[in-house]
Amino acid sequence: MLWSDPENEPPKELRDAQNMLRRLGLLVALAMVLFMVVSGLR
């Protein structure tokens, strides 16, 4: 890395988008688990 390189910090919009995608992925995973449990009970 050169001394003139910017710091390895993504912009705020990118960090917000990554947090939103992480929450969305967690929500989808929980929904899949719930769906499998419900379908297993029938």
From TrEMBL:
The chain crosses the membrane at residues 20-41. NCBIfam families: morpho_MmpB (NF047320). This is Morphogenic membrane protein MmpB. InterPro entries: MmpB-like (IPR058070). Keywords: Membrane, Transmembrane, Transmembrane helix. Pfam families: MmpB. It comes from the Bacteria.
